[in-house]
Fold each of these.
Amino acid sequence: MSALTAPPPAAVPSVRPQPRRWTCAEFHRMGDLGLFEGRRAMLIDGVILEEGPMNPPHAMAATITEDRVRETFGKGWHVRVAKPLLLGKWMDPEPDVAVVSGRPADYPTHPKSAALVVEVSDTSLKFDIGEKMNLYAAGNVAEYWVLDVTARVLHVFRDPTPDATAPHGHAFTTHRTLAETDAVSPLAVPAAGVAVKDLLP
Amino acid sequence: MSAVLVPTLPAAAPASADPRPWKWTREQYHRLGEQGYFAGKRVELIRGEVVEMSPVNWRHTLGKSLTADVLRAVFSGTAWINDQSPLPTDDSEPQPDVSVIPGSPRNYTDHPTPADALLVVEVSDSTLFYDTTAKAELYAEAGVADYWVLDVANRQLLVFRDPAPVPAGGTAYRTHQTLSETDRVSPLAAPTVTIAVKDLLP
């Protein structure tokens, strides 16, 4: 019996079994079955990701933001909170806040884009201003805000543009970081404005 | 003669709580199956993740069939051959190509577990690295005493034994042998029997 002591060659071409990728339709049916009950799941590139439980500051900021954004946009828009946003067959990030034109009844299927998406970020900033930013740009979301409740700033991303070197092939070319003392006017309602401090808990 | 296999360590925990891959429980995995999510697909649950098995080619099928026949003869009357059926652990439900389970199937009221298995064999053509790393860790951790990877591409048999905790964390097989076509092997659970490696190979 000959025995070698070296581990098997790692350089041979070898396939790692691929995770099963899910479509939005499958993902939503799982939600209907109650499989995500009480947990926060999102679908990114066919992969289901889970965020940890929402901390009180995050929940508070999300509620405050939802109210301020609804007031700021006014008539002709509606605000969806932690609802599906179908950015493609394999992509539903379920944003904290999304602003969509028209009335809810105008959408027999989930919206495919939004005038504004807001994510409230306490522990997930790296992901929210990183890969998530790229995927909202890829979904042609006109404007993306990340409310960083820890640093008490608002990141404003605009001008989604194809960028072959970026994750998901897109990025926002404009990125401003606003302090508590600043205010912002959404692109879709330029006459309206909201103070950053009014979004923060 | 023996080599310590260091398991691949999990990447360092991210500084911030980035979203992490959703982990399915076995119960949820079975519910998805009942709902038809895996219709027409061959899947396994590996550490909470549903992975698709690659399509099998004839070389793989033949290696598996030959190995099952040889082991069925070796363990006749003392154990049965579990043909690609689940061997569940807490968060995984691998379906090894061949496993040898003591007694008879009627002794079991549910799937046997890896700890029950006298021997687990994976037949590998395109998945050698995965079968000898991630899968080996999974089986070592689950207490499979004798794990074979039949490498049909390179015509050899890799034998992993002595699962033990490693200082870096996790569990790994401490003994690893690579046997060629001309070698013979004795299952740990049938030490007086010798099997020609070439009899397992296509």
Amino acid sequence: MALEIVVMVKQVPDSQEVVIDPVTMNLNRSLTRNVTNKADENALEAALQLRDEVGGHVTVVSMGPPQAESTMIECLARGADRAILVSDRFFGGADTYPTGLTVASAISKLEKVDVIFAGEESSDSSTGHVGPGVAEFLGMEQATYVSSVKYADGFIIAERELEDGTEVIKMPTPVLLTILLNANVPRRQTLKRKIAATKQGYEVWNLEKLGMPPEWVGVRGSPTIVRKMRPIKEKERAAKRFEIDQIPDLVRELFEIGALKLEEMQ
Amino acid sequence: MTGLKNAKAVENTDDYRNVFVFLEVREGKFLRSALEMIGVGRDIARKVNEKLVCLILGNNISKLADEAVEYGADLVLGAESPDLEEFRTLPYTSIVSDWVLKEKPNIFLIPASRNGRDLASRIAVKCQAGVTADCTELDIEHDTRILSANRPTYGESMLAEILCRKHRPQMATARPGIFKVPEKSRSENPEIRISKVKVDKSLKTKEIIEFRKKEKVDLSAAKIIVSGGLGLGKAEGFKALEKLAKTIGGEVGASRPAADLGWISRDHQVGQTGQTVRPRLYIAAGISGKIQHIMGMKNSENILAINIDPNAEIVTYSDYVIVGDVKDVIPRLQKEIDSYRKEHSGKKESKIASAS
Ligand SMILES: Cc1cc2nc3c(=O)[nH]c(=O)nc-3n(C[C@H](O)[C@H](O)[C@H](O)COP(=O)(O)OP(=O)(O)OC[C@H]3O[C@@H](n4cnc5c(N)ncnc54)[C@H](O)[C@@H]3O)c2cc1C
Ligand SMILES: Nc1ncnc2c1ncn2[C@@H]1O[C@H](COP(=O)(O)O)[C@@H](O)[C@H]1O
């Protein structure tokens, strides 16, 4: 059976080059380059591998501003069959709730969906909440923090990495999977494919196409707001300096302040 | 299934009371994060004179409920079933959301662990509420009972304060390893409500075929950590650290590149992609102090850096600095600690004996 596969992709500021405006304490977007979220590249690769093995189609869905175009083309050039940019000024300023709602709404317009892939988290919001949110809106089973995916007879078998071990799980489709950063090596975009991708182009869907009230999405649809940002102040530490010959003094001090304890020694 | 519904502001926020905390259980025991949630949840609840409500799902949970009460739960809501033995998204979401909709908590805290995040976002959507992820500071405004949820952002350089003014519950996930495990403190009239539940077949779609447990060193509970980085020069460098750690009753940690090179196993790694630790003493030997490492250990009570470079970044995060080559410093430190102990252990023991 061929699979209809969706990949949720987000364009993010390049974390190597983040520039903070010292006045507003916000991201200076004009000075920051945008790239595809790294974990989403792994999600796309996992989707492409699944399609190449069992057949079907991969559709990329992203909610974002028009400049996410470069990410759309990149995904097509890597091998996606179709790309949809969900874009409208109403979507701006969304927290995870309306982001998930908007992406889920777009996905619900597709004829059929068997597997949805997302990244484990985005490098800029790093919540890991949007994927599971979409699964809840669509009433789907999910598996998060997945490192490997197999498919057989209507079931996905996935490995899920927890803090203390690996869970091997089996679930029927439809299912949403969030893929770990570096779970695989994303294939490259060839020049030939890039030209073809640019020619093929991507779709842009706006709020009207989704048919949701404007107050459901974007900043108006967000239950949370950022009240303020402040630089993280580290605790001031004395950095009291000791040369090698002063180590006996340091050792005494560490015992005296209770950092070292005789009764804990083995 | 929630369907495509918007987040819904509640009519009267005064109808929402008390603090819910989700306690994560694995193999019949609380994870450390469970106690951390009780600690931070209890502080918030007591500040505004509300109840701390602990949520526990599992198979045999009455002992866990008692333990939660010892730590200050005013009310334990429990659900028991063999189907809840392991965490599974759908039944957990369903049961917890039912509790939320019925009990109307003002605040709901969940650990930002992998299962915690898996769950939190689904509950938020199901309850049409807002959730702030991965908080490192949580507080409540006394008059408004609004949760001040603070989380690092922009590569940990900034702290964003996030509020959820009109939606309830105000949900947040809390980064594991950040909040302190509290002292026991029983509440006056604790109540435990555990019900046996039957999990609907439609929610049992996830089959866990196997769980491969990782050998794991739990650094988050260590009182002392002796960590090594590339400055050790080679894998053998960790031998001396292990010996030192053993002597002083500590565990061994590592920077990521030291783990990447296989000098020590990955489960010793401290930092953004490793463990978050807050020991009483953190010794960083041959570690430069890049932000990804600092993130994982900066809340340690005392930090001692050992570095050949007096201007290494780690220095500004340190209480004590020994400038020198690890090859000389570690053996010397070992020697001086051994001799301090010889000199003092007699006295110390008599002191303990007389105190008890
Ligand atoms: C996405 C991402 C995630 C990351 N996650 C983590 C993480 O979780 N944990 C982590 O640690 N890193 C992480 N890193 C890597 C991090 O950026 C640094 O590269 C790393 O912490 C540096 O390790 P180090 O201090 O051991 O090595 P170096 O930076 O090479 O520092 C070695 C230090 O040893 C000192 N030194 C050298 N010789 C001696 C000697 N003989 N005696 C004493 N001192 C000596 C040097 O002066 C120097 O300060 C991450 C990076 C990225 C991009
Ligand atoms: N605006 C968006 N459009 C499409 N997918 C998104 C968007 N935001 C987040 N995602 C997906 O959700 C994952 C988790 O993101 P986050 O919850 O922001 O950490 C990402 O890796 C993406 O796969």
Amino acid sequence: MNLPANKKKVSIVCFSGDFDKMVAAFTIATGAAATNREVTMFFTFWGLNALKRKKGRVATGNSIMAKAFNFLMGGLNNLPLSRLNFFGISPKLMTNMMQKHNVASLPELVEAAHALGIRIVACEMAMHILEVEKSDMIEEVEDVAGVATFLNESEDAHIIFI
Amino acid sequence: MKHFLDITRETCPMTFVKVKLKLAQMSEGEQLEVLLNEGEPLENVPRSCEEQGYKVLSNDPTDEKGKHMLVIEK
């Protein structure tokens, strides 16, 4: 996407991978993109779970530890609520409550983010640790990068850490 | 060609996200009618459209209380 040089920029670090915090991250991201800002979402650590191609629990990775971590964490459908998770029931209850109040669900927000051309970047280091390959992630992941790239790209951006 | 979008059942940020995506699909010179609620959407949708260089041709209350009809030209 060609963007004018003077466009306002927002960079969001998606670290937590909690359901509610991911809703907040995608809400800010889509809101910013829809109001003409250039948005980059940088996914690291637990945040990577939201980018996995398989949205359920899959033992991704090579080592036993990585497989165990990836299986237990799961994908977008398994993100836990940061408070009162109740063994994974609460995100489903929360989704129902959101629907009842016409608030976009997390998958809808993710879809809107892709439609708006938000740049999705995955953290190389976290991918190494968790043994997640680029092929394990959704095709919208534009880049796999480190902190130096993130900082360079975010030089004149607001940085939000979630 | 005139397009129409009802965002009265949407909440932030989908109100202006849907308008933005609809406008992106349209050709230059085409018009979009947006039915929206007073409050946050009425404050933000026309403003964000103007900021992006789209023309807000009209912004009038409808017969239904609390709803406005916006006409935007791309």
